[in-house]
């Protein structure tokens, strides 16, 4: 039982490059989320999807886009990476919006 | 400034000691959750508290939600090296979930 699977685990990008972070969950959860974690800042919500077919901005959405491809998959895209987007990115899912998250193991992204 | 302030930021203790970490805010939350995160991994949910004044126990861990639903505490009895990790609190303001920056706990054998 995999839970929440994120790919890739590590990535180095040059400024201006684009990439997509993939996330899939196998728990039949309705809600999915993308967070970034920076030292001393805690986890900050980038985007979330309350249910299949809907997406909404979180606390720090600038520079990112998301796609809820189906109930299982929620991807995060960086169109033009900037050094300020260097961070660890976590995908999470929950049965009820805003409660009881299951997190993936993260993607460590460095933008040089 | 963080919506949820966790204290202390760092805590290093010997095996067998007791400890309490705090999560405080000026906002009211519909629920509050505690997670533990180990290096290189995502946070893992420990508990969700919903009712003001609620106390939940998970083996040697005791969680309390403040009466006004603005704060919470986590007490660990007889800490063990396996308790080492980053403890995060997260408050739900009616579908607006915010995390604290965490308390990094080290338990030395």
Task: Pick out its properties.
heterodimer; A: about 110 residues; mainly beta; B: about 110 residues; 6-stranded mixed sheet; 5-stranded antiparallel sheet; 11 strands
Q: Any overview of this molecule?
A:
The complex is a heterodimer of chains A (112) and B (109). Chain A is built from no helices and 11 strands. Chain A has 112 residues and is mainly β. In chain B, strands 2, 4, 5, 9, 10 and 11 form a 6-stranded mixed β-sheet that branches. Chain B has a 5-stranded antiparallel β-sheet with strand order 1-3-8-7-6, with no helix packed on it. Chain B is globular, with a radius of gyration of 13 Å. The interface between A and B is medium-sized, with 22 and 24 residues.
H/E topology pattern of chain A: EEEEEEEEEEE
> Whole-Å distance between the termini of chain A?
36 Å
Oligomer: heterodimer
The overall strand count of chain A is 11
Distance between the termini of chain B: 35 Å
Measured by DSSP, the beta-strand proportion of chain B falls in: over 45%
Low-confidence spans of chain A: pLDDT under 50, at least 5 residues? none
Q: Based on CA inertia axes, which overall geometry of chain A fits?
A: globular
Secondary structure: helix percent of chain B: under 10%
Let me know the largest β-sheet of chain A. 7 strands, mixed
Q: What is the mean pLDDT of chain A?
A: 94
Beta percentage of chain A is over 45%
Summarize the structure.
The complex is a heterodimer of chains A (112) and B (109). Chain A has 112 residues and is mainly beta.
Write the topology of this structure.
The complex is a heterodimer of chains A (112) and B (109).
Chain A: E1 4-7, E2 10-13, E3 19-25, E4 31-38, E5 42-49, E6 56-57, E7 64-68, E8 74-78, E9 87-94, E10 102-103, E11 107-111
Parallel strand pairs in A: 2-11
Antiparallel strand pairs in A: 1-3, 3-8, 4-5, 4-9, 5-6, 7-8, 9-10, 9-11
Chain B: E1 5-7, E2 10-14, E3 19-24, E4 31-37, E5 44-49, E6 55-58, E7 61-65, E8 71-76, E9 85-92, E10 97-99, E11 103-108
Parallel strand pairs in B: 2-11
Antiparallel strand pairs in B: 1-3, 3-8, 4-5, 4-9, 6-7, 7-8, 9-10, 9-11
